[in-house]
Amino acid sequence: MLVGVAGVFGWRAWRARRERLARAALIASVSVEHVRDMLVPDGNGGTLHLDHLLLTPRGLLVLDMRDAVGNVFGSDAMTEWTVMDGARRYTFPNPQAALYDRLAAVKALAGEIPVEGRIVFTRRAGFPKGLPRLTLREDSLAGDLLMGERSLAERAVEPWRETWRQLCAQLRPSSFSGVG
Questions:
Q1: Distance between CA 174 and CA 35 in Å, rounded?
Q2: Which of 63, 104, 115, 117 is most deeply packed, by most CB within 10 A?
Q3: In sequence order, what are the residues at sequence separation of 6 or more whose Cβ sits closer than 8 angstroms to the Cβ of residue 155?
């Protein structure tokens, strides 16, 4: 019995590690450079957590990762979104407001670099009524944020490199490690 329990925990740990590595590879494929689990100054003496901040040919991209299991029901106008997984049901605050706060904090440090953001749900979430604005599923990330040929992308971000370095110097590592 003990071997069976250890096997289940080992399998779950292996699967979680595999998912983290696949997610890291995916994020690397849509960015020239990126940082993960960082704190950005919020402009009011506090900080906000960034799951991922990417330097892409389109500018900076803030990714908020969400791991929900089941069908997610949410919209731009709803204050709470609902997740339903069989008999299990729970709500959470609309993540768009927090994303807007993160975008404002990054924009304050980004200079002339354009800044965008997305809320990215893992593959375990479904959206039967459609995706709200600024929301993606992880499996569509590469297609929606196609970077193109890496050497061209590297050249495209060259004018922003110094600002990127300065921005990254103002970030602090976070002890929080969520989905990403």
A1: 11
A2: 63
A3: none
Q: 48 versus 17: which is more confidently predicted?
A: 48
Closest CA to 64 of 48, 51, 54: 51
Q: How confident is the model at residue 145 (pLDDT cuts 50, 70, 90)?
A: confident
Query: Which run of H or of E encompasses 94?
Result: none
Question: How much is the pTM?
Answer: 0.85
* Per-residue pLDDT tens over the stretch 12-31: 677 767 777 777 777 877 88
- Please tell me the number of Cα atoms within 13 Å of 148 on its side-chain side: 10
User: Per-residue pLDDT for 124 more than 70?
Assistant: yes
Element housing 17 (H / E)? helix 2-29
Statement: residue 117 has pLDDT above 90? yes
Q: How far is CA 52 from the centre of its chain?
A: 5
Is the CB of residue 173 less than 8 Å from the CB of residue 53? no
Cβ proximity of 50 and 62 under 8 Å: yes
- Helix axis angle, 95-109 to 161-169, nearest 10°: 110
* CA atoms of 97 and 112, how far apart (whole Å): 23
Q: What length does the chain have?
A: 180
Nearest CA to 64 out of 25, 32, 38, 90 is that of: 38
